[in-house]
Specification:
This protein has 9 helices and 7 strands. It is α/β, with parallel strands linked by helices and 284 residues long. Helix 1 runs parallel beside helix 2 and helix 3 runs antiparallel to helix 7. The structure holds adenosine monophosphate and manganese (II) ion (MN) (3 copies).
């Protein structure tokens, strides 16, 4: 059974392959009834997604996945249920979008050097006006057969420390939390198991996140093993953080992260959505 609550997914406004309205349509077909669209560092897909959700009678939550730094690492913070017109948040995201642009230029230069022709223009075309991400470069590397798949594109070229990686100093977590809270939203520490951190380091990250005013931690994504849902749920309870759940869907061709496929929260975890300004519909 799919989870009727889906609070982490991507559209063409960043590195997803579906347009925002098609993400909503697919989520509805998958049984999702409460949906947040959370594109990387942009709110550009929200209006279209919100309008589509209204058509389908779904509850829509404004969202974004914000790129931050913590101890020299990139950490993602999912922002939920904020006012999308709030100036501080919009200005902050505009700054991150500029950083994305200059980083894309630098990555493209490095990829040209390893044989990916016309990298920047093609990444821009692929992004169709949305944010350019490393995912777009990965798709081009696969298209040109320089890599077998996206995973290899990251292990060979785009991952941290690899030949086409470009350090980006995003913003401190505290700044992102400030923007989110000034916009009336909730801040979720995204996919804690995706940063290559030890159990100890994850604990430190969660504690720092809570100390900085963070609200919740993503306890389950589509790829979180059942034992890890329990483990991160316990960490949430220990740190006084609420829990969130979302698949991190990008592409219908990726059968391992379908919309609505994040498992439910353990009962002892307080859901982030019970703190939303607008209550979400009761789960039937
Ligand atoms: P960016 O925010 O531009 O650095 O791109 C990060 C995105 O790249 C993530 O949101 C994922 O969608 C994707 N990504 C990161 N690491 C990997 C990986 N090892 N394999 C496939 N995709 C990845
Ligand atoms: Mn992504
Ligand atoms: Mn992420
Ligand atoms: Mn994501």
């Amino acid at each position: 059974m799919n989870n009727p609550i889906e609070l982490h997914c991507h559209s063409r406004a960043s590195d997803g392959v579906l347009g925002p309205a098609d993400v909503v349509r697919s989520a509805h077909a998958a049984g999702v009834r409460t949906l947040a669209l959370t594109d990387h560092d942009t709110l550009a897909g929200l209006d279209a997604a919100r309008a589509a959700a209204r058509q389908f009678g779904m509850h829509f939550v404004d969202g974004a996945e914000i790129s931050t730094r913590w101890r020299n690492r990139t950490i993602h913070v999912v922002a939920l249920d904020f006012d999308p017109t709030a100036a501080k948040l919009r200005d902050g995201l505009a700054m991150l979008q500029e950083k994305r642009c200059s980083r894309a230029t630098a990555i493209a230069e490095k990829l040209e050097a390893v044989g990916l022709h016309d990298a920047l223009a093609r990444a821009q075309a692929l992004a169709t006006g949305g944010q350019i991400t490393r995912t777009h470069f990965a798709r081009l590397l696969v298209e040109d057969r320089l890599c077998r798949n996206a995973r290899q594109a990251f292990t060979r070229f785009l991952g941290t420390g690899k030949s086409a990686s470009v350090q980006c100093d995003w913003v401190p977590i505290a700044d992102a939390l400030h923007w989110i809270h000034a916009a009336g939203g909730r801040a979720v520490l995204a996919h804690p198991l995706h940063y290559g951190l030890s159990t100890n380091q994850i604990g430190n990250l969660a504690r720092d996140f809570k100390l900085a005013g963070g609200d919740a931690i993503e306890v389950s994504t589509a790829t979180t093993a059942a034992a890890d849902v329990v483990r991160i749920g316990a960490l949430a309870a220990r740190c006084g953080l609420r829990g969130s759940a979302g698949s991190d869907f990008h592409d219908p061709a990726q059968g391992w992260r379908r919309l609505g496929s994040a498992s439910a929260l353990p009962v002892e975890v307080e859901p982030v959505w019970t703190s939303f300004r607008t209550p979400i519909p009761a789960i039937g």
